[in-house]
Design goal:
65% helix, 7 helices
C-alpha cells in the first residue's frame, strides 16, 4: 500500500478507535441509530470512496490534460509552506463554503440527510446525497492540485 493511502487509513482507524474507547459512539449511536441509518451511512461511504472520488479525481485530471496540458507538474517545485497554503485555500476553505452553500434552498435537498439523524457521531460525515459529493468543489480542486504537482504524466500517448 502506498504511504499516503496508509496514512489516510491509519487516521480513519485512529478516529474510530478514539470514538470507541471514549464510548461516545455507544452513548450517541447505540439505541438511536436504526439498521436503515447504518446501511445509508455505509453505502454513502463506499460510494464516496469507490465512485465519487475516483470520478472527480480522474475527471479533473482528464479536464486538465485537455484544457491546460502545459501546466502539468507546474507547482511541483513550490516550497512545502506554499503547498500547505494552497491546500488550506483549495480544500479547507472550499469545504467550508460548500457546506454553507448547502444550507441554501438550492442545495438543501442534497444535504438534508446529513442533518436528519437522531444522533451525533463520526458516521454523520458520510450521510449526504451522492450528488452532493459529486459536485463538491474540494474533490475537483484536489484533482487539479494533484495534476499541478504530480511528477509523472498520466496522459495516454495513443
Amino acid at each position: 500500500m502506498q504511504a499516503p493511502i496508509r496514512r489516510y487509513c491509519s487516521c480513519e482507524l485512529m478516529w474510530g478507535v478514539m470514538e470507541f474507547i471514549t464510548r461516545r459512539y455507544q452513548a450517541t449511536v447505540h439505541g438511536s441509530a436504526t439498521a436503515n441509518d447504518t446501511w445509508l451511512e455505509v453505502l454513502m461511504f463506499v460510494s464516496l470512496i469507490a465512485i465519487t472520488q475516483p470520478i472527480a479525481l480522474l475527471g479533473s485530471n482528464a479536464l486538465c490534460n485537455w484544457l491546460m496540458p502545459a501546466q502539468h507538474n507546474a507547482w511541483a517545485n513550490l516550497p512545502w509552506w506554499a503547498m500547505a497554503g494552497l491546500l488550506l485555500i483549495g480544500d479547507d476553505l472550499t469545504q467550508y463554503l460548500w457546506h454553507r452553500a448547502s444550507h441554501t434552498p438550492l442545495l438543501w435537498p442534497l444535504h438534508r440527510a446529513h442533518h436528519s439523524a437522531a444522533y451525533m457521531s463520526v458516521r454523520i460525515t458520510y450521510r449526504n446525497n451522492f450528488f452532493y459529493y459529486l459536485m463538491m468543489p474540494g474533490l475537483w480542486i484536489g484533482g487539479v492540485a494533484v495534476y499541478l504537482v504530480s511528477a509523472r504524466s498520466t496522459r495516454r500517448t495513443w
